[in-house]
Design brief:
The chain is mainly alpha-helical. It is built from three helices and two strands. The chain has a two-stranded antiparallel ribbon with strand order 1-2.
Length: about 100
């Protein structure tokens, strides 16, 4: 597979980029060089390699859900800019 100038123009249009003819030529050459480099992977023998969805084993890093007492309301309200009837008072956002 190789990239043509038409392909570069299409991607530039999708990205709403205006490219000069020199830039189109440069990007075509660069993208083809990237594809040529990536094709080297096809030369590797992967017969005994198990397919994976991620290169590093993933484990669940979540902690156990343990119920603990929350802060007393009077301590919570110490950090509030304004308070009314035991609740944090905020400016109205609706009229």
């Amino acid at each position: 597979m190789s990239i043509t100038i038409k392909d570069v123009e299409h991607v530039a249009k999708l990205a709403r980029l205006e490219l000069s003819e020199q830039e189109k030529q440069t990007f075509t050459e660069q993208m083809n060089a990237i594809l040529k480099y990536a094709e080297q992977l096809n030369e590797l023998n992967t017969d005994n390699v198990e397919p994976t969805s991620h290169p590093v084993p993933l484990v669940n890093v979540m902690r156990e859900d343990v119920s603990t007492p929350s802060l007393p309301i009077d301590k919570v309200l110490l950090n509030a800019p304004d308070e009314e009837e035991g609740q944090i008072k905020v400016p109205a956002v609706l009229e």
